[in-house]
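Let's practice the habit of predicting before peeking. Look at the sequence and jot down your guess about where helices and strands might fall. Then scroll down.
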Amino acid sequence: MVNRVVLFVLDSVGIGALPDSEQFGDIGVSTLGHIAKSTDHFKIPNLRKLGVGNIDGIDYIDADPNPIGAFGRSLEASNGKDTTTGHWEIAGLKIEQPFKTYPDGFPPHIINAFEAQTGRKVLCNKPASGTVVLDELGEEHMKTGNPIVYTSADSVFQIAAHEDIIPLDELYRMCQIARDILVGDDQVARVIARPFVGEPGNFQRTSNRRDYSIKPFEKTVLDYAKEAGYDVRAVGKIVDIYDGEGITHDVHTKDNMDGVDQTLNYLKEDFKGILFTNLVDFDAKFGHRRDVAGYRQAIEEVDARLPELFNAMKPSDLLIILADHGNDPAYSGTDHTREYIPLLIYGDDVKAGTNIGTRQTFADVAATVSDILGIPATANGTSFKNEILK
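Done guessing? Here is the structure:
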């Protein structure tokens, strides 16, 4: 009997273009595919053992003749390709209207309100790469004390500030001010604190990032699990994505390896419910920066640690490895890409070698978790519990 489900999100590790990807400006995208094709030495033996190469549509990774997990892929039913949309759908929601974006920067009424309430003028105010913008404006920021405010193709209002110039407490306060402004017709999915350190020419982001999200508009599988008395433990930015809703315990992480460590720490504890991890480096450090080699190495590093997760699992645990969208590092631009996500399911009770095919929504994950834990289901999704369990 399964009484603990581990949702392990490899942030942005999509596996191929969705049928409607061209409507989102994405032609021929495949995050994992282009990474695999970039080298003859892509070392992901554990993902292969789980069955990643056996998934329908994957012809760029050799299939395993005897996979140890169940496997499949999923379409995204929601209208979007961002972090919040993907994670909310995983938890059982469907986003009909995409979150608002600001491709020309934020209008004067937003910036004026932000400056008036923070007492600081704004630098930048345009879509930008988080690392490039530090090279362009980091020195001016240090001289003036003015925060760097920028956005992207995502629905985000990002504030970058040097930790020696604007202390973290003040940066977080500024983010809350922005969060309170960006509601109603101006609503964005997330306000993000982007602290950094260093000197001109050598600026580096720190692990003190914080995301200020809007609350989900309906109950998710996390809420139903919490209400039923289960633990819902969050690793990484999960707690921020859901604005704390449905979460009983949480820990932020410094990087992917810390995310694996914190997941292992939680696995060692005795609880029933959901353990929900996000490994963000794939997306933040390599996908948006279009760094194919770095992305490949990051996947290999996590793959090498999967046996630690397998060994830490109890007989009553179920592991689902998945993604939330794509971010093809071989594609043009810096935006996420609309792709299928992988579903790799492992545990003592799993029927190894089972192909669950192509799911019609990420919310099938939520429906399956609800089915396994015996809690109310969200309005979206179809459980694959009976397909995967012995």
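How did you do? The chain has a mean pLDDT of 97.
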